[in-house]
Amino acid sequence: MPRMEVRQMIRHRRGQSLARSTRQKLLGWGHIAFLNRLAVKCFDVSVNERYNKARPTVLLVQPEAYTSKTCGTCGELNHSLGSSCRFNCANCCYIADHDYNGAYSMLLKAIKRGSTG
User: Fold this and answer.
1) What is the spatial distance between Cα 10 and Cα 52, in angstroms, rounded to a whole number?
2) I need a labelling partner for 14 at 20 to 30 A (CA). Which of 43, 80, 86, 100 fits?
3) 3-state secondary structure of 77
4) What ranges do the domains of the chain cover?
5) Euclidean distance between CA atoms 64 and 101, whole angstroms
6) Which residues, including other chains, have CB under 8 Å from residue 26's CB and lie 6 or more apart?
7) How far apart are CA 35 and CA 62, in angstroms?
8) What distances in angstroms separate CA 110 from CA 44, 97, 117, one per listed residue?
9) What is the pLDDT along the chain (117 residues), one digit of tens a residue?
10) Are 62 and 115 in contact (CB under 8 A)?
């Protein structure tokens, strides 16, 4: 799961600004509150005896930079992905939905990095 830096997203940049209503919606969604609640739920499942048949649960927090453009099989970057719905790797011929490939790449990066939240 990526950490969303909402405060940085709504800051004014030179020549760019989000509409006031968009900024208010982003601030109201409470991404950090959701992430914290999810972390507590993962902990509950891991230690609470009423979930005695559940597997240990870990929340992986991973930045999502380049995950949609990185091949989940060979790790090659596809800079020409654009807004395409399909990810096609020219290196190993892997084809997948770009959202699936991005989520899978995030998981692989998090496991490689060993990040737990």
Assistant:
1) 43
2) 80
3) strand
4) 1-54, 60-117
5) 12
6) 6, 9, 10, 18
7) 12
8) 22, 20, 10
9) 566 666 666 776 666 677 778 777 777 777 778 888 888 888 877 777 776 766 677 777 777 777 888 888 898 888 888 777 888 998 999 999 988 988 888 888 888 877 555
10) yes
* SS3 at position 88: strand
Q: In angstroms, rounded to a whole number, what is the distance separating the alpha carbons of residues 3 and 48?
A: 26
Residue in the block written with tokens 């099989």:
73
Cα distances from 107 to residues 12, 27, 94, in angstroms, run: 32, 27, 17
Token digits for 42? 């993962």
Give the global pTM. Answer: 0.56
Q: Specify the length of the chain in residues.
A: 117
Alpha-carbon Rg for the chain, nearest whole angstrom, is: 18
**Token pair belonging to 23:** 């900024």
C-alpha pair distances (Å), 22 with each of 7, 15, 49, 90, 93: 12, 17, 43, 38, 39
